[in-house]
Amino acid sequence: MFELLGIAPQALFGQLLVGLINGAFYAMLSLGLAVIFGMLNVINFTHGAQYMLGAFAAWLMLTVLNIPFWIGLVLAPLVVGLFGVVLERLLLKRLYHLDHLYGFLMTFGLALVIEGVFQWKWGSSGQPYPNPIPGGTNLGFMFLPTYRAFVVVAALVICLATWFAIERTRLGGYLRAATENPTLVRAFGINVPRLITLTYGLGVGLAALAGVLAAPIYQVSPLMGQNLVLVVFAVVVIGGMGSILGSIVTGFGLGLIEGLTKVFYPQASSTVIFVIMAIVLLIKPAGLFGRTR
Amino acid sequence: MRKSLAAAALVCGMGVAALPAAAQISGDVVKLGVLTDMSSLYSDINGPGAVVAVQMAIEEFGGMVAGKKIELVQADVQNKADIAATISGRWYDVEGVDAILGTGGSASSIATMRVAGEKKRMFFAVDPASSDITGKLCNAYTVHWVYDTVVLANGTGSAVVKAGGKSWFFLTADYAFGHALERDVSAVVTANGGKVVGSVRHPLNTSDFSSFMLQAQASKAQVIGLANAGGDTINSIKQAAEFGVVKGGQKLAGLLVFVTDVHSLTLKLAQGLQLTEAFYWDRNDASRAFAKRFGERMNGKMPTSIQAGFYTAAKHYLEQVKALNTDDADKVMARMKSTPADEPLFGKAVIRQDGRKVHDVYLFEVKAPSESKGPWDYYKLIRTIPGEEAFRPMDQGGCPLVKKS
Amino acid sequence: MTNNHTLRNILLVAALAVALAAPWVAYPVFLMTALCFALFACAFNLLLGFAGLMSFGHAMFFGMAAYFFGHTVKEWGWRPEFGILASVLGAAALGAVTGALAIRRQGIYFAMITLAFSQMIYFFCVQAPFTHGEDGLQGIPRRAFLGGLIEVKDDRAMYYVVLAIVLFGFAAVYRIIHSPFGQVLKAIRENEQRAISLGYNANLYKLLAFILSAAIAGLAGSTKAMVLQFATLTDVTAAMSGEVVLMALVGGIGTLAGPVVGAFVIITMQNYLAAAGEWVLVIQGAIFVVIVLAFRKGIVGEIGDLVRRRPKPGPAGSSA
User: Fold this and answer.
1) Which of residues 112-141 of C touch B (CB under 8 A)?
2) pTM of this prediction?
């Protein structure tokens, strides 16, 4: 049957695997976006810029301070997450009582400023980040670069850890409770604003972590995250807003579907996600994993 | 605007009668406008460096030509044809700009072209690639300065086939520029006895090319032609290395690659890539001298062929104004098309009836890290392609101006 | 109340005088483009400000209408007035199809469905040969209006034609908002369940509002194509859908004049800040941040507040 479609089953398997790797990035990014939207009610349009910041932070650490990739992988998300915390304290916290639209305008403006400054300083063509684990394995049906294999495993671990932290720990319980009913949680003596700040820092840190992981694969360039936020937000919506597991599964799943599109109708590979979103929303309004209120 | 025209006409009349030496400069100032991508995807290729290049040309004239001051205005086209059209129109009409250089991608450049034709003012299309600019869309006030898709095909395409790369697979950006490039290169490849075994079209600004790399590998083609630009090309080359495409014995042919792209990729990843350019900073003494002065003002960056094009276009224009003592677009254009140019950076050049500037172009290969003697030492010259061979013959473009003459 | 009315009338007359005199002061093509965007923003605001529906795909109507206009006038040789009519109808038809599906969802989901449709339209425009890809549909001829009665070769002549078209669009928006239909829309925006229980078919009203908004956005898009003589992909991108949201926000959502002011502010920034080169986007971004922090109701909304806060405000009048 596969031969009928003009592609050998083995080649198809290779395509599915690279699709899964891309899905890993979508999963990590949409996870951060979903957490932020769930807790803060803000569509974080700065997400793409923060992904870029993660990559740049790692690159600067490597070239200026000689900090190797593995340490940068931990340090860069912390630095960018801290930056997120500052943003939240200074700017975003003034918007929680308002409509989504203001959060959109503010975070969109912030993204323009951040990307513009980096563009001015480092230009458009991007900076090279050397591959920390070069080489790869020939799997017979494809050549698998070792680093990509690492990315999938790392992303899975990170996603599951985040899911566990939010769904299964006490702190995560407070977080979820605080989004449902902040007044009540406050009455229990929990510092809700601090909890929210922490959440935003976490979401931003996740975006930055994805950025660090992306640095050796793509060029580290100021506009690398520019168009990402729409796609990633679509992933969140398809998965079901507020569902952590939903965005992880959808992220990986859409990577696969996008990978298949790249074989059968490559021109449409950046549009297919929106087609799926429209279909899902029309059939299942709350998304695949969302709860219908 | 009308007033200044009337004044110019008056001065002109008086000048002919009494003062043959008086310059006929509209608005008493020669104004150049640089409208290009300053803040987006391609700003390393043109952008702020283009403004610096034009400034350098103006400074070489001491800021004066024909006894009048030279002024420079600049703006960011923001990748919008709307902005290109309104700013060009305003510059020509309200601010008295005599010549515009730019203007970014093909949509915005074609928009500026039409405005220039309507207002009868000079436009130097320095950065766009579309060969339609001197083809069916051509007009009498536009000069296409550096390159176009046909040159890229004739240069890299034919050279790679002649070197034995007979079977091709294309990785094409899914928009008019990519399609044109794929079409032109395919024609060159088949004409030289090669064949195209497949192609895949990716959306503009794709970041992940791994799926396409697998398809290119599966095609077993000897050459993978990259019919894309900017970040797409950079990411394709980077990921080709990651997936061992070159190690597996396939060759990459970058159809539109600039020196800044190679710089961004580093030699380790870009080595062996063959490409066609009209200018390379390290080609001769004059280009090295220009590049040195440019680098001093641009943080050590070397000029791209586009930025060098901005410099020579401005300089060539000012030389015409100086020789003619007027900035009248018709006269300047007539002189440019009738007198061949010979300048240090691009060598001997003619500007044809259809507005195409024809000069030699060069086939380069990117050096291996061991061959490079220092920063920005990236290319070695493989072959000089004479202008007549590289550019599309004038009668094949379908430019209406050609039929008239 | 009367005070407010006289003030408003004075402002209206002043605005009209400015609009009539403007092309003798500022560059007409710039003014025309800004007017078209103003109308586009009004169309968007009709939906968001008065029906409470946030569309994130309005560029599809604006951009497709530009292509419709370009194709009918350039390739088929239609007269401009028929080209505009066809574009408006085309945009309305597109609005009917997409709207019928989108209004089945609310809030952010509604926005995302409109975004999805506009991305599909964008994809269609990249693929379809008649748009000429990123080169754009260029060189749409400027033909005289009404069969040669109104010559528009001169930019200023064209300006008055465009002004008339745009004013017609503004008037249409004004009529819609102040009609019984508009009142029902507002009722649905405030409390959909109650409107339904009062016997109104909320979905039908929303769909009609969506179609009207699409048609007016189409009017704006085709007029812009007529002015600039081209239609390009920029007009159908998600970025353009975002831009119109910004125009409405900056000017003030839910006010009649807000989107107009917002459109002028943003188009002026794009054109006159362009000289700031690399800093254009940074400055724009900073302005958005400042607006959210300090002028949340948008320029017109804030000014309206100032006026109303002055001594002895009448009984809370409607802010139109």
Assistant:
1) 126, 132-136, 138-139
2) 0.90
